Amino acid sequence: MASVAIDVAGEQTATQNCPSSPSVSVEIPTEETKNLPLEDVSNTPVLPSQQIVSIDVFRGFATVILILVVDAGGAFPSISASPWTGLTLGDLVLPFFLFACGFSVALLFKKVPDRKAATIKAVKRAILLFVLGLFFQGGYFHGRGDDTYGVDLDRIRLFGILQGFSARFITPAKDSRRRANINRIFLSGMTVVWLDNDGIVDSPSSFARRYYPEWVVALALCSIYMGFSNNLYVPDWEFHVLKSEAVNRVSCGVRGSLSPSCTAAGLIDRFFLGEKHLNQRPSYARMKECSIRSPASGPLPSDAPVWCQAPFDPEGLLSSFTAVVTCFIGLNFGHVYTNSRAHGKTLITWLNTSLVLVIVGLVMKTLGLPFNRSLYTVSFLCVSSGICGIVLTALYYIVDVKEIMKPVLLLKWIGKNVLIVYALSALQVCSIVLQGFYWRSPENNPVDRLESGLQALFHSTQWGTFVFVLVEIIFWGLFSGFLHRKRIYL
Fold it and tell me: Rounded distance, CA 483 to CA 199, Å?
């Protein structure tokens, strides 16, 4: 075996075992052990570097799915987030990012020498992320097809995806030498700063002793969520229809309802955030009760219930309790990796944990608790986290064990600069800027002309849009590769 060291900036340098060195001395496989058959994988040492390649690929994969859902979801409604209950490709985007954040925290913050300093830096980053969320998702940008901008502060959306992330997951920097790696991970939880116990992990029992506080918190969060969801009384309530003087009244008077109109999550958000600051176009407006083109958006049916026009935010306060548990699950997967000494042991543990989560989620659904991304139900938490684990396990085997890199190179590059790709592409900031440059009429802008040209070429709106999105993904992959080559990480 060859002995090398991985320093905290992620660079490999030859070194001797030195307690005072900021590097970690580990053994890695030699040329003879790189291509072991599957049955010998369990004897292959794990390389516990700060960044395993598969987690970058995993983040890139999540970002590509997000771009596909945002830009092709109109042409293919079946991949968009479920209008209310169900499980689609779009529903998995948020869990993928939360899971990746938790995993990354386990790699970066095994030990925190100064908890107070780390917490201060974490709060600063959370505030910055919240402000960015208000700017990008508060309503200032009006989306493609609308060349106006600006937002009424009386109706600004307080909790979009980025704002919700800032409250759930905060990335504390331990020292300046880790900034480069931290900047690649745009979100994670600071809970590990305060909850991790010290000690060597050399058995399942020592693993449990070191990390059990995190699971105590995770179980407490789920219990609080279930307590409010099942027991909070939701009275009748009123709301103002968007861009109208009309006031509609919704009849509830129930506890434990999972219908869009009478959830405890909606009540809590209206009370603490105010109905004006919630998402005014919630996903349940695409339900068959609310859209004649369901599951796509469309005009209201003649007999649509009044709550179809009511505000609701899936990134609200109560759903954050279970959403944060997804990060804890990713954190546990990261702990398994950082404390494992063999690829096979890591793969088996991850796969078994993932399958258990999926089975638990399916059992809960069978017992009457539906998959619901907007409410982030416990059944959805379990099954989505299990799917995340299965995907990461597969990528880890392909990329880190078998070292097959070329097919996922674009995903790796995107995963290293996920925040900038997310802002410019998934939030459509780049498209909105480009559509401001047009020839004689606003419709003749570069973005719309490219998409309409591809639709005409393929004689299909759906497949023309799909190819347009593929071109967009390839562009952002190459752009991220350029940033990676220049060592620019945002």
Answer: 39
